[in-house]
Specification:
Layout: E1 5-6, H1 18-26, H2 32-39, H3 43-52, H4 63-67, H5 69-76, H6 82-89, H7 93-102, H8 106-109, E2 114-115, H9 127-143, E3 172-175, H10 189-192, H11 195-203, E4 208-213, H12 215-218, H13 231-246, E5 251-256, E6 262-263, E7 274-278, E8 281-284, H14 289-305, E9 311-315, H15 340-357, E10 363-367, H16 379-387, E11 393-398, E12 403-407, E13 410-414, H17 426-437, E14 442-445, H18 463-475, E15 480-482, H19 493-504, H20 510-518, H21 522-536, H22 543-548, H23 578-581, H24 587-611, H25 615-645, H26 649-670, E16 678-679, E17 683-684, H27 688-706
Helix pairs in contact: 2-3, 2-6, 14-15, 15-16, 16-17, 18-19, 20-21, 21-24, 24-25, 25-26, 26-27
Length: 707
C-alpha cells in the first residue's frame, strides 16, 4: 500500500509555471514522450519549451530509469501526484510500493507520506511568463555551456583477473559501491559488481562484500507463497555473484534480518503464529517451533544449494519488523514475558546451526547493533545476550557506540556513523572483550571513506582518523572489520591503508604508506590531511544532525521565503527544521563549531591546491572541496532558517550571495567527476540540474524577499 496522501504546505515554485518545473527536472531523465503524456501535450511542444528554457542540448539517458529512479522519484515527490508520477516512471503501484518499503527505507526518507497534489498540465505561457522564462534561460545557458561528467560511468574499463592476490591478514567486508538495496538477486550482478570493481577491491585488500538478502525470495516461503516465486532463479544469480567474486579472492556475505513480519491478511492457515502486530503486519512469534523450523530449513536449504558463500551477518533488533521483540513495546501474548536477549540470541543460534548442518564452510556473525540502551537494553542484557550465543557465532559491534564526546563545551555520546570521532566506545569495548573472553571471534563495524557525516563523496581524505580508529581496535584484540554500511564502498586509498596495517601491525608506518601512495608529494599531502582531520574533529556531531540536517543534499536543498512548517526527514528533505538538526547544540555553539571546521578545512584545501599536479591529488582536492561545500551549505541553511524568522534581511541577503557562490563552484566540480553526489542506497542525491535550480531559486528569493 502506497504512503498515505497528506495535505501539507508545498514548496515554492522557482519557475513561472509548475509544468516548467516538471520539464526542467525530468528532461533527459525520462523519454520526452513520457513528459508529454504527463503534461498532456505533444512531444513537439515539450521540445520547443525545453529549448525556450535553455535545455535544448539535453539528451535522454536510459540509465536514469534503470539505475537512478530514486533520484527521479525524489525530484518529483513534491511536484506530481501519484497518477502522474507513476506515468512518468512507467511503474505499477506495486513496484513503487516495493521500492519505497524495501530500498533502504526510501519511503521514510521521503517523509513516510505523499503530499496531496493536483495534476499539472501544460498551458501556453503568458507574455509575462515568457519574459521570466527568458531570464531563467540565461542562467541555464550560462552555467550549462560546458558538458558535465557522464553519470553512471563507473568502473567500465576492461578488467584482468589478478593472478597473485595480496596476502593481507584479517577480514575486511564492504557493501558494494554500486550494489542495490532492494531485490538484489533479480538483477545480473555484472551490472552492480563489474569485474573492474572487483579487481579494484582486490587491489586495496577487500576480501568480502555484503548484500541484502531476504529469505522469502531465496528459499521456499510457506507464509506467502507468491513471495517465494522465482527463488531458484535468484539463487542462480547469487551463485554467479559468489563465483565471480571468488576469482578475485572476495567472499560474499548475506545480511539477514529475519524472520520477517507478514501482513496479517496473508497469514491464512498460519494465523496462530502471529505475535506482535503493528500497522497490519504480524511478527512471527519465535516461541512457536514452526517459526524456528522455518528459519532453520530456509537457511539450511539456501547454504546447501548455493556453494561458496562466505557467511552471513544478522541484525536482530530494529531495522525491519521481525520477531516480537524487534523494538521496545512487545505486546505479544505469548512471548512478552521472554527477555529480548533470549529471543535474539536464539535466532542467531538457529541460523548458525542451519549453516553448520548445511555443510557449508561459512561464518555466522551476530551484529549487535540495537542490543543497546537506545533500544531499551541494559548493559547487563547485552552481556547476557552474548553469553547465550553459541560459541561458533562470531560477534560484531558498532565500534563507536557509546563514545563520549565534547564539542564547544557540549557533552554528548555517539550511537553510530562517525569517522570524525574515532572509537571504540566504552560499551563496545566491554562487549567485544567479553565476547573474546568467551571464545567468540570478534568484528568491529566501522565506517570508512564516508558516513552520514558527509555521504556525497566517495571518500573523505581523513586517513589519519581511520588509522587512529583501527589502532585503537587492535589494542582490544579486534582484527576483522565490517568497513561500511550501504555507503562507503568505494575502493579507496583508505581501504588500502587498512589492509596494509592489518598485515603489518607494529611495523606499519603511516608516513611510509603516504609515500607509497603519493610519492614525492607525500609530506605535503600528509600535512593537508592533518589539517582536514583537525577540522573534522570540530564537527558538531549528533544523530539528529547526521540524519536531519541539510548537509546530505547540500546545495540541492531548495530554500523558501516562507517557513516550510515541515519536519526534516532522514538524509533527505531538511526544510527549515533547524531546531531539530541542531541536536544538543545551542545555535551559537553549532555555528561556532562549523566556523572552526570550515577555517581549518580550507587550510588543507589550500595546501592541496598548491601541489595539485596529478590525478590522485586532484581527486583528493575535488572530494575535499565538495565536502567543504556541503558543510558550508549546512551552516548557511541553518543561519538562513533562523535569520528569515527574525526578518534580518541584510543577513539573509549575505547568506543568499554565499549560497549562490558555492553553487557555482560545485557546478564546476560536477563537470569533472561522475562520482560526486552518488550513494548507492539513494542513487544520485543531486545532479547539476538540482544545483542549477538552486541558482534559479536563490535569484528568485533575492528578488521577492530581499530587494
Amino acid at each position: 500500500m502506497l504512503p498515505v496522501e497528506k495535505k501539507v504546505k508545498l514548496p515554492e515554485n522557482n519557475f513561472p509555471t509548475l509544468w516548467q518545473a516538471v520539464l526542467f527536472r525530468n528532461i533527459g531523465f525520462v523519454p520526452v514522450d513520457k513528459i508529454a503524456s504527463v503534461l498532456k501535450c505533444s512531444v513537439s511542444v515539450v521540445s520547443a519549451e525545453a529549448k525556450r528554457l535553455g535545455l535544448e542540448h539535453i539528451s535522454y539517458d536510459e540509465n536514469w530509469e534503470k539505475l537512478g529512479y530514486m533520484t527521479v522519484i525524489r525530484n518529483n515527490w513534491y511536484l506530481l501526484p501519484y497518477n502522474q508520477l507513476l506515468n512518468l516512471l512507467g511503474f505499477s503501484e506495486e513496484r513503487l510500493d516495493f521500492i519505497l518499503k524495501n530500498e533502504d527505507f526510501f519511503g521514510e526518507k521521503l517523509g513516510g507520506f505523499k503530499p496531496e497534489l493536483t495534476e499539472i498540465v501544460y498551458e501556453p505561457l503568458t507574455k509575462e511568463q515568457i519574459e521570466k522564462t527568458e531570464q531563467i534561460a540565461c542562467i541555464i545557458r550560462r552555467e550549462y555551456s560546458v558538458s558535465f561528467a557522464k553519470k553512471f560511468n563507473f568502473f567500465n574499463e576492461d578488467s584482468k583477473e589478478i593472478s597473485v592476490l595480496h596476502k593481507r591478514s584479517g577480514i575486511r567486508i564492504v557493501h558494494g559501491y554500486l550494489t542495490p538495496c532492494g531485490d538484489v538477486f533479480s538483477e545480473d550482478s555484472e551490472k552492480y559488481m563489474p569485474d573492474a570493481l572487483l579487481e579494484e577491491y582486490a587491489r586495496v585488500g577487500i576480501n568480502g562484500v555484503w548484500v541484502h538478502a531476504m529469505l522469502s525470495t531465496l528459499s521456499p516461503y510457506p507464509f506467502d507463497k507468491t513471495l517465494g516465486d522465482g527463488y531458484k532463479q535468484r539463487r542462480l544469480a547469487l551463485q554467479k555473484l559468489v563465483d565471480r567474486c571468488a576469482r578475485f579472492g572476495v567472499k560474499v556475505y548475506l545480511y539477514l534480518n529475519e524472520p520477517r513480519g507478514v501482513f496479517v491478511e496473508k497469514l491464512g492457515e498460519f494465523k496462530h503464529l502471529a505475535g506482535r502486530i503493528e500497522n497490519g503486519v504480524a511478527s512471527l512469534c519465535f516461541e512457536h517451533k514452526e517459526v524456528q523450523d522455518y528459519l532453520y530449513s530456509a537457511v539450511k536449504d539456501l547454504f546447501e544449494n548455493v556453494h561458496g558463500i562466505g557467511g552471513c551477518f544478522t541484525i536482530t533488533m530494529s531495522e525491519n519488523q521481525t520477531h516480537c521483540h524487534f523494538r521496545q513495546g512487545n505486546n505479544c501474548p505469548i512471548c512478552s514475558g521472554v527477555s529480548p536477549e533470549e529471543v535474539t540470541s536464539r535466532i542467531n543460534n538457529v541460523i548458525a546451526k542451519a549453516v553448520k548442518d548445511s555443510g557449508a564452510n561459512a561464518e555466522v556473525i551476530a551484529n549487535l547493533w540495537g542490543w543497546s540502551t537506545y533500544m531499551g537494553w541494559t548493559e547487563e542484557q547485552l552481556i547476557n545476550g552474548i553469553r547465550l550465543l553459541d560459541k561458533d557465532v562470531s560477534v560484531m559491534c558498532v565500534s563507536e557506540f557509546d563514545l563520549n564526546i565534547e564539542k564547544g563545551g557540549v557533552k554528548s555520546r555517539i550511537i553510530d556513523y562517525s569517522i570524525a570521532n574515532p572509537g571504540p566506545g566504552e560499551v563496545a569495548k566491554k562487549a567485544l572483550s567479553f565476547a573474546k573472553e568467551k571464545g567468540h571471534k570478534t568484528y568491529a563495524k566501522i565506517q570508512v571513506n564516508n558516513s552520514w557525516e558527509c555521504s556525497a563523496v566517495p571518500y573523505l581524505p581523513v586517513f589519519d582518523l581511520t588509522y587512529e580508529h583501527i589502532k585503537n581496535l587492535t589494542e582490544i584484540g579486534v582484527e576483522d572489520y565490517l568497513l561500511t554500511w550501504t555507503l562507503g564502498g568505494y575502493p579507496s586509498p583508505t581501504m588500502d591503508m587498512i589492509a596494509d596495517y592489518s598485515s603489518q601491525k607494529e611495523s606499519f608506518n603511516l608516513q611510509k604508506w603516504y609515500g607509497k601512495f603519493f610519492g614525492e608529494k607525500s609530506k605535503d599531502v600528509q600535512l593537508a590531511v592533518d589539517k582536514i582531520c583537525s577540522a573534522f574533529r570540530e564537527y558538531p556531531f549528533s544523530i539528529q544532525n547526521l540524519y536531519l540536517s541539510p548537509r546530505t543534499l547540500g546545495l540541492a536543498n531548495l530554500w523558501d521565503v516562507e517557513p516550510c512548517e515541515k519536519s526534516s526527514t532522514m538524509v533527505c528533505y531538511a526544510y527549515d527544521d533547524y531546531k531539530n538538526w541542531l541536536g544538543p547544540y545551542p545555535l551559537d555553539v553549532f555555528v561556532s563549531q562549523y566556523n572552526k571546521l570550515l577555517t581549518k578545512w580550507q587550510e588543507g584545501i589550500k595546501i592541496l591546491e598548491k601541489i595539485n599536479d596529478n590525478q590522485l591529488i586532484d581527486e583528493l582536492l575535488t572530494y575535499s572541496k565538495v565536502a567543504y561545500y556541503h558543510f558550508y551549505s549546512d551552516l548557511l541553511q541553518t543561519e538562513y532558517s533562523y535569520k528569515k524568522l527574525i526578518q534580518d534581511k541584510n543577513s539573509v541577503n549575505e547568506l543568499l550571495i554565499k549560497e549562490k557562490e558555492l553553487s557555482i563552484k560545485l557546478l564546476a566540480l560536477l563537470k569533472k567527476s561522475q562520482f560526486v553526489g552518488f550513494e548507492t542506497s539513494n542513487h544520485y542525491f543531486y545532479t547539476e540540474r538540482n544545483v542549477l535550480e538552486k541558482l534559479i531559486n536563490v535569484e528568485r528569493i533575492q528578488k521577492e524577499y530581499v530587494i
